[in-house]
Every structure is written in structure tokens, then in C-alpha cells.
Amino acid sequence: MRLIIVESPTKAKTISHFLAKTDIVESSFGHVRDLPTKKLGVDINNNFEPEYEVPAKAKKVAAKLKSLVKKADEVILATDEDREGEAIAWHLQQLLKLPAKQKNRIVFHEITESAIKNALKTPRELDYNLINAQQARRILDRLVGYELSPFLWKKVAKNLSAGRVQSAAVRLIVEREREIEAFIKQEYWTISAHLQAHKEKFTAQLVKWQGKTLDKLAITNQKEAQKIKEQLLEANYNVQKITREKIIKIPPAPFTTSTLQQVANRWLGFSAKQTMVLAQQLYEGINLGPEEQVGLITYMRTDALDLSNEFIHQARAVIQNNFGSQFIAKTPRKFINKNKRAQEAHEAIRPTNPNRTPESVKKYLDPRQFRLYELIWQRALASQAAEAQIDHLSINIEADSAMFLATGQTITFPGYLSIYPEQTQEKILPHLTDKEPLKLLELTTDQHFTQPPARYSDAGLVKQLEKYGIGRPSTYAPIIATIEKRGYVIRDNYKRLEPTAIGKIVNDLLVKHFPNIVDYQFTASIENSLDDIARGEVAWSKIIADFYWPFHQHLEEKSQELSKKDIMPETPTNEVCDKCGAKMVIKIGRYGPFLACSAFPKCRNIKTMKSKSTPQELPEKYQHLAKKYANEVCDKCGAKMVIKIGRYGPFLACSAFPKCRNIKKIYTKKQQSTKTNKP
Questions:
Q1: Pairwise CA distance, residues 379 & 367, whole Å
Q2: What CATH number does residue 115 fall under?
Q3: Beta bridge partners of 3
Q4: DSSP labels for 261-315?
Q5: Residue 162 is part of a domain; what is its CATH number?
């Protein structure tokens, strides 16, 4: 009997379809060993030697695997091909007492019959460089969390945490919020000429006035705009110059983990976590009917842009059959990754078989799985498609001492856009000639205001994390999930990341007193060091020692130096405690500001503060709902209900979230009618 161990039950089910009945495929359900939960589990005086144990939730699985190993003639470790997968394989080897130098480790980029059978032909030994890199990350995170988190409990609030990567991510979000808070909007005006030529109407924008090129903020008030308008009403409008430019648009590279998360967030509204959950499902295997269970995409944690020669050949054939030979790139297209740390041995995210079109598998997928698979399929195929060809037209229009500009574009050949429909808008202008006179229909002035930078969406934050080298493909989604879980950030009405009061306090504390923990360059340098370990260029214990001892000493100094009052000052109020008559003060807790009796600990009375949510925070089309539900109160805790915007529209949520998670649907008139009329 041959025993093959993977980390996921779905993956086990898929692989079992490709093997003989004598082969047994079992799942470890993730890690079978980990650092202990109730103690540090790292011997800092013995080269940071970790102490692993079998978690309670893994004991049943561990016992089953041990029993199966006794009966097996051969044991194969087939966990994922990244550092985490290699570490899981090593923990299995240690737990099951398998020979250390045995070639019993297989890896594959996709879960298909050919990939699995080819991998079984070429087993290798465990890669201890990858294992050590994962161990180093786990130990570093444990050391920081185990020592810094209790410091936060004493000096700020209970149940807080800090970490090398999560704290740097929170800093990004807090700094963006401070930019928004400091932003001063500026008024500016634009002037548009609505023109006609050959019975065709078009619009041009004022770009030059009295010999001066106008920047965005050149016209600052209505009076100035109106004055220019009045002078231009009687002007003669003529075509001054026509510029035609042929633009060749190259298709984007196939997806990496970060670009998939970004595009899925922008186009589909998926969070980074949702994207990775769905991608994992598509990778591990989908049932496509009787006797056919197969992975639809390649491994989804990757920063490589490479595509296999086999896939490129198949993709070009699919493009030829479905779109025609003119839509195929002249030569197979390769993409160069600008990220020098990218794992080029891996592949980009792609369909395992491009012949499985999204429509052909749609009935086997749920709607979200389908949309993500469609996106991956389109992007991968488009990478081997011909360039799009676009004619760009610029028309300079002279009006006495003013110059207007009209621009348009026409897609002359869609190329890859026929497969991957990026938003490329056509704007058709009338056929004009030099010096041709134009008829002015109307001049309009429009008021605008500069806008503050937007809060980070999942896509925006992932892009910044990648830019600064914070984290790696496997960690982007967990980072966002962790800082949400800790209460450092919440989602605003647009699903963007907003720092909480406690998030700001913890961030400011770390920035001031533990700058290395939140320093982008320092965090990136640690990631680079982990990459060096993975390549066998440096010992993992040295990297940890270089970080830990200065950090530990600094933490001890700050523990003596700082008091809770230094970090968490109380704000006096005129409100009186209804239990003892003392004045109430504003304190900041894990869930934000609250009122507390100044006589604490003699009196422990506390009150929630009124929500500051306002109608102005909502999109204009939902403003009427804010007025309608202004006095709505949570029926579970009594706090004010506020309007949030979710995937399916507006809903009511308790303002005491995450302490209270009560929500209520808001029905439209049509929905209410349907609900009422139901038998």
C-alpha cells in the first residue's frame, strides 16, 4: 500500500481520482505540529530552538496517520509547493518518524492527472532551506507577539496584539487616514465648449487662455470662470491642429497572487480573503461530473509570471479556434518580473486546461467561483493574444485668445480586449479638417473640488504591501484578516479600510517607541532575509538573533519608562456619573472611545458614546435612508443602528460592532411588497 499525505481533504479527494485503488490519499488538515499556545515555546538561550507540540485539534488526525504509516509500504508527502507546504511536510516527517534523507517529497503546480503522475515519478528529499525560512518566520512572529502583546495589554488595553507585518500594514492605513484628515479641499472651475460640425455635436475643454496653459486649479472661482466665458461667447471657433496617434496596447501579464487580489477586488468586489478562499477551491479540485474531479487553476500563491510552454501552446490553439488566427500574438509572449525576489521556478496563476472555457464549467461552479475562474481564464489567455490597436485623436480648437482640446479614440482592432475586456472606452469625434470653422452651441462652466486620497481598499493595500516588500503572496490576505479581527481597522460604507481609535493609538505608540516594528524598509529587509534563508545563503538562527536581542532590550527599557497614563490620557467631560455623582471621563478601549467614571476603581460605571455616523458618510442615493432610520436602535444591546453598504446594497448594523454584531435588512418598496404578498 502507498500512502500519500496532503494538507487538505478536498485536495486528497481530487488526487485520489487519478491513482490506483491500492493508493490511499489522506489529509493532515493543515499543520500537525505547532508552537505551544500557553507558553513561548522558543528556547532563546539555545539558538532559538523551537518546541513543537501536536495541537488538540490535530491529535485525532495524527493518531490516524500513525496507524496508516504502520501499514504502508511507501509514504509520499504531497503538500503545497511553497515554504508553508514544505514545513507541513517536515512536521509530518517528524511526527511519523519517517527517514530524514528519503526521497518521499513531491511537488506540483496543478492538481491534474498528468501533473500528479509526473510528480510521483520524480520524488525528492525535503528542502531544509525552505523549512528553515518558514520556521524563522514563525519564530520571529512568536517572539514579537509573545513579548510585545503583553506590553500593549498593560499600557493600552487587554487582548491587543502586535506583529512585524500586521503593524506595518496598520501604519499604512493610519497614515492614509491622517492624509485624509489633513486634506483641505480646493475649489476649481472648468469651461467646456459644446460645438457642432456637419450636424455632429462634440465637446472640448478649455486648456489655454491668453497664452497661458491652464493647470487643474487655474480657475479658482465662479466670478473668474464667468468672466472668461463672457469673453469667449463671441469668439470664432476653428480647428487649429489635428493629431492622430496609433496606440498599440499590450495585454497585461497573467495573474500573480497580488494582481489577482487587486483585480478581483476592483472588478468583482471580492475581499483579499474571499479571493484566496475561492482560488483555493478552484485549485484543490472541482467535481465536473461522474468520475471527474480536477483542479481548474494552478497554485494560487505565487509571485511569478512564467507560463509553461505546454500551456502557451494550448492557449494559442484555443484563441485560434475561438477567435481566429489574427487574434494570436505573433510569437509566444513571455513576461519579465520586475520583482527580483519573485520565485521564478513557479508559474503564474492560470487555468490547468485552457480548453475548459468558463461557460463549459459554469454549471459545476457557484456564481463566485465562476466569476473568479472566468477572470483567471480570460487574463491567462489574453496574455498570448495579439495587441489591441487604438487610434487616438487630439483636436486643438482656436477661439481668439483661447485654446480648447477635444480628444477621442477608436478601437481599430480589439486584439486581446476580445478575451479580457478591460475598460477601454471609445469616444468618436466627427471627421474634421485643419482650419475648419466650428459652430458654438453653448459654453458651460462647472464647479469642482479637489478630493482627498481615498482610504485603502483591499486592492490598494495589497498593492502597497507589495510595493514596500511587506509580506509575501501567501500572507497578503491573512494580514488584512488579522488587523480586522484585532479591531485595528473596520470597513467603511465603501468597504474600504478605516483605522479605529485603538488602531491609531497602538500605531502611534509603535511608531514613537518601537520604530523598527512598523518601519517599511526594516520589515522588507526581514522578508529579504527570510528569502536568503530559503536559498540557503544564511543561517536562520542568526537572522533571529540579530533581530531579537536589540528588540528585547529595548522593550524592557520601554516597559520601565512608559506608564498607561502617558499613552492613554483621559479627557475630562461635564457629564456626571449616575451612580456616584463623580465626573465622567473619555477613555479609549479596544472598541473605541467610551465614558468611564473618574472615581475608578471605586466606581466602575461606564457608558457607550453616541455614534458619530452622519448621513454625509453615505453615497448620495442612500441619503434618504439615513433620515428614515435616524432613530433606529439595536434590539439586542440598545446602541444606535447605522447604515452600511454591503454587496447587496444598504443594511442596518449595530454601532457597537464588533462587540455587538446585530444587523437588519433594509427592504426596498418592491422587496417589501414581495415580502408582504408571500403566502
A1: 18
A2: 3.40.50.140
A3: 24, 75
A4: HHHHHHHH---HHHHHHHHHHHHH-EE-STT-EE--B--S--------HHHHHHH
A5: 1.10.460.10
Residue 184 has pLDDT above 50, yes or no: yes
Domain that residue 349 falls in: 257-382
Amino acid at position 150, single letter: P
> CA-to-CA distance for 141 and 185, rounded, in angstroms?
41
Q: Which of 608, 638, 665 is the last residue of a domain?
A: 608
Displacement of CA 258 from its chain's centroid (Å): 7
CA distance 607 to 228: 57
Run of H or E including 248: strand 237-249
| Chain centre distance of CA 369 | 17
Domain boundary among 550, 565, 580: 565
Q: Where is 135: in which H helix or E strand? A: helix 128-155
For residue 621, what is the domain's CATH number?
A: 3.30.65
pLDDT of residue 397: 98
Residue 388: is it exposed, middle or buried by C-beta count within 10 angstroms (0-12/13-18/19+)? buried
Is residue 130 helix, strand or coil? helix
- Whether residue 6 is found in the same domain as residue 116: yes
The pLDDT of 104-109, averaged and rounded, is: 95
Say if residue 476 is in the same domain as residue 556.
Answer: yes
Amino acid at site 599: A
d(CA 89, CA 80) in angstroms, rounded, equals 9
Residues 28 and 68 in one domain: yes
Judging by DSSP bridges, how do beta strands 437-449 and 489-491 pair with one another? unpaired
Continuous H helices in 451-607: 458-468, 476-485, 501-513, 515-518, 520-534, 540-561, 564-567
- Is 203 in a helix, a strand, or coil? strand
Both 120 and 141 in a single domain? no
| Selected residue with higher pLDDT from 195 and 655 | 195
402, 320: one domain: no
The grid coordinates listed for 336 are: 519579465
Whether 231 and 144 map to the same domain: the answer is no
* Residue 589 pLDDT class (50, 70, 90 cuts): confident
Whether residue 110 sits in one domain with residue 84: yes
CATH number of the domain encompassing residue 578? 2.20.70
- Point out which residues pair with 402 in neighbouring strands: 209, 399
Residues noted as catalytic: 299
For position 620, what pLDDT does the model report? Answer: 58
Q: Phi and psi of 89, rounded to 5°?
A: -60, -45
The CA-to-CA distance between both ends of the chain, in Å, stands at: 59
Selection from 546, 527, 547 nearest residue 468 by Cα: 527
Q: Which residues contact 374 (CB under 8 A, 6 or more apart)?
A: 358
pLDDT digits (tens, 9 = 90+) for 382-416: 999 999 999 999 999 999 999 999 999 999 999 99
pLDDT tens digits, one per residue of 13-51:
999 999 998 999 999 999 999 999 999 999 999 999 999
DSSP per residue, 606-655: EEEPPP---GGGS-GGGHHHHHHTTT-B-TTT-PBEEEEEETTEEEEEET
CATH of the domain at 424: 2.70.20.10
Number of domains in the chain: 6
164-182 and 128-155 helices cross at what angle (nearest 10)? 60
Among residues 10, 42, 136, which one has the least CA distance to residue 472? 136
27 close to 12: Cβ distance less than 8 angstroms: yes
Condensed to tens digits (0 to 9), the pLDDT of residues 472-531 reads 888 999 999 999 998 999 998 889 999 998 999 999 999 999 999 999 999 999 999 999
Helix (H, G, I), strand (E, B) or coil at 538: coil
Asked if 501 and 530 sit in the same domain, the reply is yes
Dist CA 676 CA 679 (whole Å)? 8
